[in-house]
Write a structure and sequence with these properties.
four-stranded antiparallel beta sheet, Monooxygenase, 11 helices, 416 residues, alpha+beta
Length: 416
């Protein structure tokens, strides 16, 4: 038998063979014999193996998941947690809140989960840092000032002031000849990708600022740049004329123009523009192109966050919807897909009748057997902990999404 032949092989050869298996196949091999179970269990402890599986199965988000995950989480746990998103319907939820804005200066504009369990909260008074585990303020020094936009990663802090001055701050100085900060005027939008900041001036010139803070003009757009995105190692621009261009060196290449013949959501998703989209303008485009506007809450979209196959949609009225693989055929389609979970963060004392409570930002952190979703609104930040605490074997946790329907036929008690 095949498993007898495997058991007869030296352990080093079995490990080499198993290294080519998918994560699900590897877990199933534990059931073949005691010896193979011991080999697989030893492989599970290998970080490089699970990093490889994360890269293979979650190529678009595995690095982000590691960066924003709970400190100390192993690649194996990250892989398992990412696999569990398809079973979100069964997750237990716990809700907490922090950074309540009782004063105008504390009103929230953005939130970003950073490395080592830090959260950067952009308020009207500056940038304040919290711990994701305790939700207490961190010892890291706040950044004072009033800013229109804020982004941060391991390398840079980038803020845009209300007078459209862009400040790029290097967090570490490896070469003393490099300046620690650069300022650029008349900037209307920007995008931070690793050590590079792309920004657009009021005259629609597109610039690239590298880690040494030297700035280089890439190209000019005659159509009026609406937003920037980065996907598949390319910079894209979306114009007010509904055209999408890629930046190739110092040339703009027309990728497509959104028309009445195209699915707007699908095209915008393909080029990674849904997160930076102004949904008021999107609704105007739908009207101009004679597309049917959605009814109900989906007409009030404020924020969309794409996280692999998971799509978070925040409305103007404090409603968060979470979708998994919202496709009709191969077309990205929120309007004809039901959310897996829905949460309402509006509170009558916070948001009286006739006032709104927009969800302005959504971010995600992976935990062991669960996920933490940070939902920012102007008056507060909600922390949604989703925990998968059902009884299951390791192989059940690795089941792919297309087998999720089989799981739903099991009794609910099997997941608790």
């Amino acid at each position: 038998m095949a498993d007898d032949n495997l058991c007869a092989l030296p352990a080093e050869i079995v490990v080499y063979i198993f290294s080519f298996l998918s994560a699900r196949e590897l877990i199933k091999c534990r059931q073949l014999s005691i010896r193979l179970k011991e080999i697989v269990d030893s492989m599970i402890q290998t970080e490089a193996l699970w990093q490889q599986h994360c890269k293979k199965d979650f190529s678009s988000i595995y690095q982000m998941a590691r960066y924003k995950s709970k400190p100390g989480l192993l690649w194996y746990n990250i892989y398992k947690s990412l696999k569990l998103w398809c079973k979100l319907a069964y997750a237990r939820e716990d809700l907490d809140e922090f950074a309540s804005a009782s004063e105008l200066s504390n009103e929230i504009s953005n939130v970003i989960i950073l490395r080592d369990g830090l959260i950067g909260v952009h308020t009207r008074g500056g940038i304040v840092y919290y711990h994701i585990e305790t939700l207490d303020k961190a010892k890291r020094e706040d950044i004072k000032g009033t800013y229109l936009r804020y982004m941060e990663n391991d390398d840079m802090i980038v803020v845009l002031s209300y007078n459209l001055q862009l400040f790029i701050i290097r967090k570490t100085i490896q070469n003393p000849r490099f300046e620690p900060c650069a300022t650029f005027d008349n900037v209307k939008t920007f995008l931070l990708i690793d050590e590079i900041t792309y920004y657009v001036t009021l005259s629609d010139d597109i610039y690239e600022c590298k880690c040494n803070l030297s700035s280089e003009r890439l190209e000019h757009s005659d159509d009026g740049v609406m937003s920037l995105s980065y996907s598949r190692n390319k910079l894209y621009i979306l114009t007010f004329q509904r055209s999408i261009y890629s930046v190739n060196g110092k040339n703009l290449v027309l990728e497509c123009t959104l028309s009445s013949d195209t699915s707007l959501l699908d095209q915008l998703s393909k080029y990674n523009f849904l997160e930076s989209l102004d949904w008021r303008i999107y609704n105007q485009w739908m009207y101009v192109l004679n597309h049917n506007l959605p009814h109900g809450p989906l007409r009030d979209i404020i924020k969309v966050r794409i996280y692999g196959d998971v799509v978070f949609v925040g409305s103007n009225w404090g409603v968060l919807r979470i979708y998994y693989a919202p496709y009709t055929g191969e077309i990205f389609d929120l309007y004809n897909t039901e959310p897996v979970r829905q949460f309402n963060f509006i509170e009558r004392y916070d948001c009286p009748v006739l006032s709104n409570c927009p969800i302005i930002q959504i971010d995600v952190s992976e935990r062991e057997d669960g996920h933490t979703v940070i939902v920012a609104m102007p008056k507060k930040i909600a922390v949604l902990n989703l925990t998968h605490n059902f009884k299951r074997t390791a192989s059940v946790a690795m089941l792919p999404y297309h087998e999720n329907s089989k799981m739903k036929m099991l009794k609910i008690k099997d997941f608790l």
